[in-house]
Amino acid sequence: MALFERTGWKAMHLKLGDFDLFLSKDGSGSALAGAPSVPALPSVPTPAPSAPAPAPAGAAQPSASAGDPVVPPGWVLVTAPSLGTFYRAPKPGVPMFTDLGASVAKDSELCLIEVMKLFTTLRATATGTVREIYAQDGQLVEYGQPLFLIEPDA
What we know:
With about 150 residues, this protein is mostly beta strands. The protein has two domains: about 1-40, no CATH class; about 75-150, CATH 2.40.50.100. Helices cover about 5% and strands about 30% of the residues. It has one helix at about 1-5, and strands at about 10-15, 20-25, 75-80, 85, 105, 110-115, 120-125, 130-135, 140, 145-150. The strands form three sheets. A four-stranded antiparallel beta sheet has the order 3-10-8-5, with no helix packed on it. It has a four-stranded antiparallel beta sheet with strand order 7-6-4-9, with no helix packed on it.
């Protein structure tokens, strides 16, 4: 936590297997009150990132590039309301809330965003057809990250 306090970061989420840690700073830059004092862990050198390996032929590719998606006029881009884990179904083994090409009604459930065991339901802001799904189930998403593109009904 001492290392986190010295960074310019406002928040940090670390998830390793069953271990899940979320640290946040208030507006003054100090750690939040009530956080337990934990001795700093010794630093471990991390390997330099290597160039990504080419994807095998026929492998599924994400439907959007790393940049912002192109949104046709009148279409609705649904973005993540917060940092968290993106889930397409209410729980494992049950049908997803929606799928690519599916019709959705305004206020229908699209996905869940989970932060520290608190689940937020993300709802459609328009009636229409889901044309793109930008995140993968179980993926960590960031605030404002594009999640769905909806073509509104005429």
